[in-house]
Task: structure prediction
Amino acid sequence: MKNILKNLILFFLILTCVYLGFWQLDRADQKLSIQTDYQNQLSKEYLDLKEVQKNPLRYTKIMAKGTFLEPYFLLDNFVHNKKAGYLVMSPFLVEDKIIIVNRGWVDNFSRQKFPEILTPESDQQIKGYIKYPMRLLELSGVNMTNEKPFIIQNLNINEISSILKKEIYPFYLNLEINSNHSYIQIKEKTENKYLTHYMYAGQWFLFALIGIIFLILLNRKKNVKT
Result:
């Protein structure tokens, strides 16, 4: 019975290591895909938002003319220069459809007060590149506060659409650095780290191999005793 338990534990650990190895390979492929998209798209010309296809590639450079709307949304839990803050996500109306615009990072003042965010009143021409919302860790069970300014844990397009009562593009625009009406733009991390994930994958597969060797030795020892 004791040997059976050891075998089960070793077998479980081997499967876990194999799973983590393949997970790291998948992460490496994702990072490589992001890096490739970034390099390919940012070398191209700006496209008018109205000419963009239904599901454009991330980092596609676009320009749009329209109007910033209220209310804005503060995307929580972003750190810049070791300080906690928000990303200012503002609705931007282009004809009868909205694109959410990341206007940059602002300090959260240790949550003692809210940052003062100004919404331009006149029509604006904006430029930037496309990104898709990623689900981040929710530190509470609620994604959005009930009062203005709206603090959000994740950029939920459907939730914002229900508040604004308008159709919203499924992606958002990262405003160009040094644009008018932008705050601190956090520079995109373009360094390629996919090789690190390949290294981690190799480590997990090595651990799995060591586990298999231990499993074989354990059962061989048992057979010799028998």
